[in-house]
Design a protein that fits this description.
Blueprint: H1 3-13, E1 17-19, E2 25-26, E3 32-33, E4 35-37, H2 46-63, E5 69-73, H3 77-88, E6 92-95, E7 108-109, E8 117-125, H4 129-140, E9 144-153, H5 157-165, E10 170-175, H6 176-186, H7 191-205
Parallel strand pairs: 5-6, 5-8, 8-9, 9-10
Antiparallel strand pairs: 1-4, 2-3, 6-7
Helix pairs in contact: 1-6, 2-3
Amino acid sequence: MTQKKEIAKILLNVGAVELSPNEPFTWASGIESPIYCDNRLTMSDPVGRKQIAQGLADIIRAQYPQTTVIAGTATAGIPHAAWVADILGLPMVYIRSAAKGHGRSRQIEGKIDAADKAIIIEDLISTGGSSLNAAEALRSEGIEVTGVVSIFTYELQSADETFASVGLTYTSLTDFGALAEAAQESGAISEESIGSLLDWHGKLKAGLLK
């Protein structure tokens, strides 16, 4: 079994994937989706979260060896960033979606300086908007961003374009295709639902849904 499918099974087994074709979820980007992937639930799976953290750490070692600090996005990326930072023996910070309106009014919490090279850890990537926001926050402090790693990606062209527009690369442990395949094989999602899900994803990738 490939690692992508193994991670997809972890998400399915912990109940992180929810389908609602009749009452779709609305993403932050405004896109209506029949599927919601709540990777926060992986925090409650001691075995699964260790496998996820190790997988993310392995990606950073192999593809972003120059990284000196792990930066988790608030809120879902924070615990995974902490576990990865522990594995790699690196400092960790986290990035708010916006600067807080009191105290020191910081958007980045934790110790970081201009000599650091930060990798951003996300729980998932849809359109890439939250990753772009996090990268901008780091770069505004003079921090070099080495890239973005995530647990899951919806494999959208719009995300690829977003990352390319700001000169960032990203890598995910698993993706929509592996998730759909694992769900179909395990019977976690009915054949009828799989068909409608693949149809929705195809239209979204083709830019037919907004």
